[in-house]
Design a protein that fits this description.
Blueprint: H1 6-54, E1 56-59, E2 62-65, H2 68-71, E3 83-88, E4 95-97, E5 103-104, E6 106-108, E7 123-128, E8 133-139, E9 145-155, E10 158-167, H3 169-216, H4 234-284, H5 289-322, E11 330-333, H6 334-351, E12 355-359, E13 365-368, H7 370-386, E14 393-401, E15 404-411, H8 418-421, H9 441-450, E16 455-461, E17 465-473
Parallel strand pairs: 2-4, 12-14
Antiparallel strand pairs: 1-2, 3-6, 3-10, 4-5, 7-8, 8-9, 9-10, 11-13, 14-15, 15-17, 16-17
Helix pairs in contact: 1-3, 4-5, 5-9, 6-7, 7-9
The protein binds adenosine-5'-diphosphate.
Length: 476
């Protein structure tokens, strides 16, 4: 049995509670029934005692008893269980029985054949008025169960003990029957509660079972699966909502990996084929030194392409898998970040004689991962060089707008047509394949900027140039 199972735990809790409740109810019902039964017997005993007391009269030093008045009925039937007995405790006194005029120390009902019979106290049931009235259970000569009231009376300064009894075999039998009936009811309710509790638990846990069923159907082919929140109860809606979100992320990551893998293998195929053909051709026959140098130069340039593609893929894969770590965040001066980025692109700009103008009045501060922000900006400046004309220019400006910094990187290069402006941020998208590149730079830049709560926008016109505007929150 698994004790960490909700099913078993809930069953044990609910069942123990129901069991306890049923036991208490059954016990109280039996107690109440007993009480009611004995209440009427005790009332009869009290009435009988009162009648006997009412029949007493003082006669000089004795008590005269009108026994004839109570001689009728059960008291004259032998061993009926209806007995009375009077003991005179006071000395020099006794009972004078009306009929015989005899003086007796005790008077006993004819039903109690043995005159000297003592009512043995088997169990004291009730004590009233400080022992002056005691109800107790006893047995008669024939071992029949009795309920006895013993009353200590002081009548005209004479102490008298009065015993009255009633047979209780029928009452005990009824109580026994009631107990049996309650036991049957108890067992039936336990059986029903087991059935009801089990069905309720099953019903309540069904959504969880459905949920896990849905999960068991997930595989790499249906990662885009989204569960319908409306099919789940209120308590599970949140969990299903976050599960869908998680699946969305996993599916996106999986798609990205697939795309990276297929694009990377596709893009690597051509340069690798180029290297192989250069090698094959060179090895076909003896070449001159210059020819070998040319071949090695071509291989080097193709290897550079592969290198830039692999670096792009590695950078993208790192961003996708780790996302940006906030513990690398620090206070950054935008002027310092831009100067570093310009330094890193200087050689490329120099090769095309492109002038990078960086204008600023004030420095502003951001919070972020320095290396990543530099990487994002370098990608954009590099594009401004790559897609620019010989002797072109790049203007870099920073403006403060409310709590944001607007960083503009503007070139006067080939520009981007409006239909391509939305697509260039997609992974591997390239407008013109004749210029070297991987199609990953802008996607990497966008991911970095957005993970710093920023935005990247573009304004461009074909043959006029392109302006990238990066918006980032600034701090004081
Ligand atoms: P890559 O430059 O390696 O091809 P990017 O993601 O950086 O990849 O750019 C995607 C495409 O967007 C480029 O192939 C190019 O067609 C276009 N592009 C990017 N920047 C510019 C720019 N400044 N001017 C013109 N076209 C650009």
């Amino acid at each position: 049995m698994k004790f960490n199972s909700i099913k078993i735990k809930s069953f044990l809790y609910l069942f123990s509670f129901t069991l306890l409740l049923t036991i208490i109810i059954s016990f109280l019902s039996v107690q109440k029934f007993k009480e009611l039964m004995f209440f009427s017997i005790d009332k009869t005993l009290k009435n009988e005692a009162d009648i006997i007391i009412g029949l007493m009269k003082e006669d000089k030093n004795f008590i005269e008893l009108e026994i004839t008045e109570i001689k009728d009925g059960n008291y004259i039937k032998n061993n009926s269980g209806h007995y009375y007995k009077l003991n005179m405790i006071s000395k020099n006194s006794g009972f004078k029985v009306h009929e015989t005029n005899k003086v007796l120390n005790k008077v006993v009902s004819p039903s109690l054949i043995d005159q000297n019979y003592e009512f043995k106290i088997l169990n004291v049931e009730k004590v009233i008025n400080k022992d002056s009235e005691i109800f107790f259970s006893s047995k008669d000569i024939n071992n029949n169960p009795l309920r006895v009231l013993k009353k200590n009376i002081n009548y005209k300064n004479k102490d008298i003990e009065l015993y009255v009894s009633e047979p209780i075999s029928d009452t005990l039998h009824s109580i026994q029957e009631f107990k049996f009936f309650i036991t049957i009811i108890f067992l039936i309710s336990i059986l029903f509660s087991i059935i009801i509790i089990t069905s309720l638990i099953k019903l309540f846990l069904k959504p969880i079972a459905d949920f896990s069923n849905e999960l068991s159907n997930i595989n790499h082919k249906n990662l885009d699966l989204s569960l319908d929140i409306n099919n789940y109860p209120e308590e599970l809606k949140n969990m299903v909502f976050y599960f869908n979100k998680m699946m969305e992320k996993i599916s996106k990551a999986f798609e990205t990996e697939k795309l990276i893998l297929s694009e990377a293998s596709h893009k690597l195929k051509t340069p690798l084929a180029v290297i192989k053909s250069h090698c094959d051709i060179s090895l076909k026959k003896e070449r001159t030194k210059d020819e070998y140098i040319d071949t090695l130069k071509s291989i080097k340039s193709t290897t550079n392409k592969i290198n830039s593609l692999v670096l792009g893929i590695l950078s993208l894969a790192k961003l996708e898998s780790e996302s940006i770590k906030h513990n690398n965040f620090e206070r950054l001066s935008i002027i310092d970040v831009l100067n570093t980025s310009i330094d890193l692109t200087e050689l490329l700009a120099y090769q095309k004689n492109i002038k990078i103008n960086f204008e600023y009045n004030n420095d502003y501060y951001l919070v972020g991962d320095r290396d990543k922000i530099v990487e994002a900006i370098v990608n954009i400046i590099e594009n401004g060089i790559k897609y620019n004309l010989q002797d072109g220019t790049i203007d870099i400006k920073i403006i403060k707008n409310d709590n944001n910094l607007l960083l503009s990187i503007k070139d006067n290069g080939i520009g981007i047509s409006s239909e391509n402006q939305n697509k260039i941020f997609e992974k591997f998208y390239r407008v013109d394949n004749s210029i070297e590149g991987s199609g990953l730079g802008l996607n990497i830049s966008k991911t970095i900027i957005e993970s710093h709560n920023g935005k990247i926008e573009i304004v461009s016109e074909v043959n006029k140039g392109t302006e990238f505007i990066i918006k980032l929150p600034i701090i004081n």
